[in-house]
Design a protein that fits this description.
elongated
Length: about 70
């Protein structure tokens, strides 16, 4: 089961990872992106998590579209 701390950490680390990819000229280690992405997705919020958050905080989150995630 994913804890709130793990979920928050996954979102923050995913943002940092995406920023790193944007700045990188190239990724030279085969499989690195896939390995890091798999680790980040382990605790990344699911649609149900986003839906609950959107219900509680509609000014911050929107309901996910059906079929996303």
């Amino acid at each position: 089961m994913t804890t709130p701390d793990e979920r928050t950490k996954a979102v923050v680390e995913t943002r940092d990872f995406l920023r790193l990819l944007v700045r990188a000229d190239e990724v030279a280690i085969p499989g690195l992106v896939q390995t890091v992405a798999a680790g980040l997705l382990r605790h990344y919020p699911l649609d149900i998590d986003l839906s609950v958050s959107a219900s509680a905080l509609p000014g911050i989150w929107a309901q996910p579209a059906i079929g996303e995630g």
